[in-house]
Amino acid sequence: MTFGEFDVIETYFTHRFAQRDDVQVSVGDDGAVVAIDPTEDLVVVTDTMVAGVHFDANTPARAIGHKILAVNLSDLAAMGAEPRWFSLALTLPEIDEEWLTGFSTGLKEMSEYYDCSLIGGDTTRGPLTITITAHGVVPKGKALLRSGAKPGDWIYVSHALGDAGLALAVQQKRLAIPDQHYRKVCERLFFPTPRVALGQSLRGIASSAIDISDGLLSDLGHILKASRVGARLSLDELPLSLPMTESLSQEQALQLALTSGDDYELCFTVPESQRGLFDTLVAHAATKPICIGRITSDLNRVVLELDGEPWQLPAGEQGYQHFAFSSERGHDGQS
Questions:
Q1: Annotation-wise, does 183 bind a ligand?
Q2: What is the dihedral of CA 142, 148, 151, 154, to 10 degrees?
Q3: Interacting residues of 68 by C-beta distance below 8 A, sequence separation 6+
Q4: CB-CB contact of 153 with 212 (8 Å)
Q5: What pLDDT does 314 receive?
Q6: Which of 208, 269, 302, 321 has the fewest CB atoms nearer than 10 Å to its CB?
Q7: What DSSP state is assigned to residue 67?
């Protein structure tokens, strides 16, 4: 018997994924039907991963399944949304049952942990490409945007930056680090953690937010452009992991933390008037966001300081752009 498109859907996706109570029609029909409360706004995000661009043949299939949903959930987190549903468009060069088992397992683990139901999609034949459209909800009018930052707001990041970029640099033989450090940063590259709970807790507190998919400077730049402001960053406060500080020079570590993508941490701004409430909110959090600077009135200008002195990033290093390089990179994210 030939194993075809609908066999793939039926075997790996139709019955493997638990459904939320608000899913009325799921995988197997022409479209999905979900019940929406009129007191909520729907948030919709989409991300694509392409073989040879966002991952290579050595990337475990389970990691690909984990990551493609994680990057979408990270976009939802940046808007303060609660994940609800997602659809999957999967283009396969051939049917590889071992790969599909690993991929669907990684996807299933993420979907169950974040209570986000697979409700439909499409499968086709061609170069390996994976697209997910994820849907979430926020209370009416409470979505976090990029456009609300004001001069004087404090700038935060949710966790250490640059680890995924370091793992990619080692894979591409641009850097070499001890094995125990490589294993740790590979976890950050292959299995990122979307900051979903933090994003929801920032509603009504943060003035702007974005997830860091293409590098801190690049993604912070989207906030600055949308909000028509500038920023001053204290690099002494930039959170760096042990693998970064023990394996690299200070300049290498800062460069990766500022420009490498795939971190999927949140960058957000908090007004001075909300800072006390924010400090109380995160006082007992296992991972506390770090304040790295402040918003200024200098339109689109970022000032970097180290030890109280101006610090200059090497020319040309500002963050990942999809069409600026021909070499394989691991980054993704909406712009």
A1: no
A2: 50
A3: 47, 49, 107, 130, 132
A4: no
A5: 78
A6: 321
A7: H
Residue 168: φ, ψ to 5°:
-65, -40
Asked if residue 162 belongs to a known ligand binding site, the reply is no
47 is annotated as contributing to ligand binding: yes
Residue 191, classed as helix, strand or coil, is coil
Q: In this structure, what token pair is assigned to residue 160?
A: 């250490």
Q: How is the beta sheet containing 82-92 ordered, strand by strand? A: 40-50, 129-139, 82-92, 117-125
pTM over cut 0.90 = no
Which tens digit of pLDDT belongs to each residue from 63-107?
999 999 999 999 999 999 999 999 999 999 999 999 999 999 999
31 has pLDDT over 80:
no
The DSSP annotation for 225-270 comes to HHHT-EEEEEGGG----HHHHHHS-HHHHHHHHHH-----EEEEEE
Q: Is the pLDDT of residue 117 over 50?
A: yes
Is 297 annotated as contributing to ligand binding?
no
**Ordered domains of the chain (ranges, CATH):** 7-139 (3.30.1330.10), 154-310 (3.90.650.10)
CB 75 within 8 A of CB 45: yes
Residue 52's H or E segment, with its range, is none
The answer to whether 21 is a known ligand-binding residue is no
CA gap 11, 270 in Å, rounded: 46
Q: Is 121 annotated in some ligand binding site? A: yes
Is 211 annotated in a binding site? The answer is: yes
Q: What does the pLDDT read at residue 5?
A: 53
Per-residue CA distances from 109 to 22, 100, 119, 162 (Å): 20, 14, 16, 25
Given a cut of 80, is residue 131 above it in pLDDT?
yes
Residue 37: pLDDT band with limits 50, 70, 90: confident
- Does the annotation flag 284 for ligand binding? no
Give yes or no for residue 320 having a pLDDT over 70.
Answer: no
Distance from the Cα of residue 156 to its chain's centroid:
16
